[in-house]
Write a structure and sequence with these properties.
- It is found in: Cytoplasm, Cytoskeleton.
- With about 625 residues, the protein is of the alpha+beta class.
- Helix content is about 65%, strand content about 5%.
- Strands 1, 2, 3, 4, 5, 6, 7 and 8 form an eight-stranded antiparallel beta sheet that branches.
- It starts with a helix and ends in a 24-residue tail after the last helix.
Length: about 625
């Protein structure tokens, strides 16, 4: 019994020992867990101090550094803390599973440390977001600063670009401007990105930061607009300078070319015949083609200068001077070309006249024996043969009449003989001339009585000798009585009064080609009247009425006329290489010419009436004037 009691006590002691051991172990692990939890909570508290820092950086570099350090901190804290929290949670779970007597306390510790860890993670996430937002904000400010710096750098380059105008060509200046504009275009993307970034940041910030964002954005946009305005102004300036350089270069080239053309005009030796004149005229027309080919370049150059002046270029006075110089040189060139062309035309007429005059003189010389013959025939057959021979001569003379008239038109001898008889040369250089013939009497005999007395000679038929030409402004008022003309505008035409008719041509060469203005017929002046239009608003205007009515205004053109004396003088080597000019055409000169032409029409009509009333089988022969160089037949066919 005693043994049983001892055994029972021993067993009880062993139970107490085991129980005591279990309690001590539980208390050990409890204290161990408590220490781990305290250390972890202390560690979390330290990390919370770092994670909860309000420091967000003073500038972009600072916030970038903070963000980099915090990323390292967050990475390290996350990995270490997660390991420690996992170990504690595992320890807690094991203690609870083993039935620790303080399971409730252990569970409370677990919840506390996990809550602290979660708070730390949330705090670190918040800190990371704040640093990221601060990074974006300071990056925006830094980008604004960089863009402003680039804008300022571009603005500082503008004066340098504009200053190159005197040291470069137009092409190089344009290329430099193009490169600069390309650099500016790169900023367009950056400015657009800044605007988009500012719009996003305004949704995240308020207060001072929002105002700072808006202020920086407006500062950049204001500087950008100023740069664009300065670029546009510089572009206009550079374009104007480049255009001015190109204009001056073009003017210089054109003036050099015009000087070359002026040197070419009239440098050839004097022509000695029709063929040499025609060769010179072909060469001169070649110069005209070259001038016309350059006409577009001259027009474009003048238009460029005009645009530069209208754009208020600083060099407007210089450009205007260049334009005036170019226009003056062009006018000089065209006037010299026209003057030399007129001289060539006149020389052509001179040599043509010389040829025609020699032929006509030879024909007249050949006809003299026939006209001087005193043979009248001794029989009817001989007389009839002489009559037939004479009729053949008359027909030949009629055919030659037009050639003599052309000689008169070529020389217009009568104004020069009346005004400048002293100009007729007497030297051997004059035209080939035939010996003057004495006046040969011509008698009209009746075929029925050839050998009887002779009838009194009929006076020679009057001819139209008035010649007048020049430019006039014409306005066609009436097509007939009370019938207004369809086209009543003023037109500058070349007017030629010849053979009693008035022709209107586009230019001085129109009469030679026979192409009148608008295909109009020649105006016969037989029943025409002319008078000064005193009541008309323009000056130097006179009326011409022949059933239709014209208003004619004399201009200031200088007419050039040629007489026989001038022809001889030029062929004889006159120093005046471009002909002789009469005084300016005026209204009174035209009125006198028209009145003289009307008088000639009256005389022709009176002679024709007298001729019709003459009873004769022979129409008579025209009287020849032996003392004139260019003779004509008396009656126009």
């Amino acid at each position: 019994m005693r043994q049983s009691q001892v055994d029972w006590l021993y067993v009880s002691l062993k139970d107490l020992v085991e129980e005591r051991k279990a309690k001590l172990e539980q208390q050990y692990w409890l204290y161990q867990l408590n220490r781990e939890v305290d250390e972890l909570e202390h560690w979390i508290a330290e990390k919370e101090v770092v994670a909860g820092s309000p420091e967000l950086g003073q500038d972009f570099e600072h916030v970038t550094l903070l963000q980099e350090k915090f990323l390292e901190f967050a990475s390290e804290t996350g990995s270490v803390g997660q390991e420690r929290i996992t170990a504690i949670n595992q320890m807690v779970d094991e203690l609870i599973d083993y039935g620790h007597t303080d399971a409730a306390t252990i569970a409370e510790w677990k919840d506390g440390v996990n809550e602290a860890w979660a708070d730390l993670l949330e705090l670190m996430e918040t800190r990371a977001q704040m640093l990221a937002a601060s990074h974006e904000l300071h990056k925006f400010f830094n980008d604004c600063k960089e863009v402003l710096g680039q804008i300022e750098e571009k603005r500082q380059r503008l004066p340098e670009l504009a200053a190159r105008k005197g040291r470069t060509s137009a092409g190089a200046l344009q290329r430099a401007l193009g490169a600069f504009e390309h650099d500016v275009e790169v900023l367009v993307t950056q400015v657009r990105q800044l605007q988009e970034g500012a719009a996003q940041l305004r949704t995240l910030y308020a207060g001072d930061n929002a105002e700072a964002i808006a202020g920086r954005e407006q500062e950049v946009l204001r500087a950008w607009k100023e740069l664009l305005a300065a670029c546009e102004e510089c572009q206009l300036h550079v374009t104007s300078v480049a255009d001015k350089i190109r204009f001056v270069g073009t003017v210089r080239d054109l003036l050099t070319w015009m000087d070359g053309v002026l040197c070419q005009i009239g440098t050839r030796e004097k022509p000695r015949g029709v063929s040499s004149v025609e060769l010179l005229m072909n060469d001169h027309q070649g110069l005209k083609s070259e001038i016309e080919a350059r006409g577009k370049s001259i027009t474009a150059c003048l238009e460029l200068g005009k645009n530069l002046i209208l754009s208020k270029s600083p060099a407007a006075d210089e450009i205007k001077a260049h334009m005036e110089k170019l226009l003056a040189k062009k006018k000089e060139m065209m006037e010299k070309w026209d003057k030399h062309w007129e001289w060539l035309q006149q020389m052509l007429e001179v040599h043509q006249f010389a040829q025609e005059a020699v032929v006509a003189d030879a024909w007249l010389t050949a006809q003299e024996p026939l006209l001087k013959s005193q043979e009248l025939g001794s029989s009817v057959d001989e007389v009839e043969q002489l009559i037939r021979r004479h009729e053949a001569f008359r027909k030949a003379a009629a055919a030659w009449e037009e050639r003599f008239s052309s000689l008169r038109r070529l020389t217009m001898v009568w104004p020069w003989e009346q005004e400048s008889p002293a100009r007729l040369p007497t030297g051997p250089e004059a035209l080939p001339e035939r010996m003057p013939r004495p006046n040969r009497p011509r008698t009209r005999r009746s075929r029925s009585a050839p050998a009887q007395g002779s009838a009194p000679p009929l006076p020679p038929p009057p001819t139209h000798t008035v010649q007048h030409e020049g430019f006039l402004f014409r306005k066609h008022e009436l097509d007939g009585p009370n019938k207004k003309a369809s086209n009543r505008s003023w037109v500058n035409l070349y007017c030629v009064l010849s053979k009693g008719d008035l022709g209107f041509y586009k230019d001085a060469k129109g009469q030679a080609t026979g192409s009148t203005h608008g295909g109009e017929p020649l105006l016969n002046l037989h029943h025409s009247t002319s008078e000064v239009a005193n009541n008309y608003k323009k000056k130097n205007v006179f009326k011409l009425n022949d059933g239709s009515e014209f208003l004619l205004q004399a201009n200031d053109e200088v007419g050039v006329y040629w007489g026989l004396g001038v022809v001889v003088e030029i062929l004889g080597g006159s120093d005046d290489g471009f002909g002789v000019s009469l005084p300016q055409e005026d209204m009174q000169g035209w009125l006198r010419a028209l009145a003289a032409c009307a008088q000639e029409h009256t005389e022709v009509a009176r002679w024709s009436q007298a001729f019709l009333t003459t009873s004769s089988t022979d129409e008579g022969l025209p009287r020849w004037e032996g003392d004139r160089r260019s003779s004509t037949l008396g009656r126009r066919k």
